Amino acid sequence: MSLLLRLASPALPISHRLLCSSLPPTTFLANSLLFAASSPRCLPSALSLYSLLSLSSPMSSPPLLRPNAFTYPLLFRAAPPTVALALATHSVKFLGAHAASCDRVLGPCCLTIASCRRVFDRIACPDLPAWNALLSAYMRCASSAADAILELFSRMISLGTVRPNEITLVAVIGACGELGALGHGVWAHTYLVKRQLAINRIVTTALVEMYAGCGRLDLAEHVFATASDRDTRCYNAMLQGLAAHGHGRAALDLFDRMRGSGVPVDGVTILSVLCSCAHAELVDEGLEYFDKMEIEFGIEPRIEHYGCVVDMLSRAGRLDDAEKLIHEMPIVPNAAIYRSLIRACDIHGNLELGERMITELRQHDPDDSGNHVLIANLYARMNRWEEAKKTRKEMKSMGIDKSPGSSLLDMNGVLHEFLVGDKTHPASKEIYTMVEEIEARLSEHGHRSSTTSVLFDVEEEDKADTLTYHSERLAIPFALIASDPGTPIRIIKNLRVCADCHESAKLVSRVYGREIVMRDRTRFHHFREGECSCGDFW
DNA sequence: CTAGGGTTAG
């Protein structure tokens, strides 16, 4: 059939009708038609076919036709650059995370962000929508593309051919939030106000997310409180911000106000509420919302909701309840659920349960580097050194590598990046001198580095050294040297903070009288006067 | 005279 259609290009309207009438139509069939239509003269036909594809999915249920990895290359054959760019951004939207693997299969013709960029670069004088389409495509990119967005934006400004609007700024603000680049974010906010660009609820959401992501929950709340109108996603962003900062009570209050305001509650809302409860140890409240979410809000619990509740129970030490939920839940548990329970088994010292969960996790996700570290740490905790060593060897032989830890430091709008054991910073020498001074002063206050959390990240002989050189142990000294006394230190980490660095940051905040705001992979830590806002519960 | 935009646990 498909071959027939390829031959049928002169009779395109007929085959088009065939697609509409054939039961059931398939994407494969539609792609075959597109192939016929995608010679340059047939762009209108190709586009109408595409709209048929994209309109019938994924909103309609059941989705009949969904563009797939083969749809877009066919369209590109016919499209001029500006149309191709719009289509390319569509392809990123539809194919999402799959785009990267598609590019490998299909060759460098389209689909990934790289192909959007190639299409964009073919446009001689990009107009505003073209810039916006490209920036938005970067924003949706699975792999972090925040610096690319900021770089493109600064090129756009310096070229001066088009003026950014609020849609452009949404992409820029999103990038600032991801990087934790408070300085740039404030600049973008000021730009919006100065140019009198519309601050609608989409912009509001972006600003709330950016400020929360940069550790300025106060500014996020201010933007949220002064916004003229808010929808579900505005509320969700604010709730998520409160959750990440451990403000569980405030999140529950906001949730109550949301219900009072008539703005609809969705699955993401409930997820944020559950996450708030998990981070603030509000277990009873969390369980109550979880139990009634279906009856009271009409939202069926999904895997994320179960994951959040398992995490909440596990952190709180109710390991048996967490295990019970895993066994009773009507959905197949995923690797993340086992991981949060295993991490809790390590913390709460339930090694027997932890080992059982390791068996489950191994079946689910044998390749993930995080799993191996988790497993090795648990074995180390059990003093089962042979198994721990074996796990580490397995990692090596499988070529699995941990992603290197990094810390970003925002100082007066300038970003400084530090990696583990980094020696590339211009002020490296001063930093390492400071590292030693801090160690000395902390040990006067009774701090002694424990090596448990890094045991299996490094070879035995480097253990004590590497501890000192975790990326935040370089960023903090640099901030102490280079920023004004009394100003808060803001750090964005790519991984979770280890117990020892957490302890050390608490002491630095007291000994040096500095507030430290640290965003880690999962949440925020506000260190002040020797205490952390997470209450050592993370 | 449009295009182009926001939330999601571990």
TrEMBL record:
Q: Name one Pfam family in it.
A: E_motif
Q: By its UniProt entry, which NCBIfam families does this protein fall under?
A: PPR (TIGR00756)
Q: Does the keyword Repeat apply?
A: yes
Which residues are in the DYW domain? Answer: 446-538
Keyword annotations for this protein? Repeat, Transit peptide
Fetch the Gene3D superfamilies from UniProt: Tetratricopeptide repeat domain (1.25.40.10)
Q: Which InterPro entries match?
A: DYW_dom, E2_motif, E_motif, PPR_At4g14850-like_plant, PPR_rpt, TPR-like_helical_dom_sf
Q: Name one GO biological process term.
A: RNA modification
User: What domain of life does the native source organism fall in?
Assistant: Eukaryota
Query: Whereabouts are the PPR repeats?
Result: 231-265
This protein's species is Oryza brachyantha (malo sina)
Molecular function (GO) terms listed? RNA binding; zinc ion binding
Name of the protein described by the UniProt record: DYW domain-containing protein
Q: Which PANTHER family has this protein been placed in?
A: DYW DOMAIN-CONTAINING PROTEIN (PTHR47926:SF450), PENTATRICOPEPTIDE REPEAT-CONTAINING PROTEIN (PTHR47926)
Q: Does the keyword Transit peptide apply?
A: yes
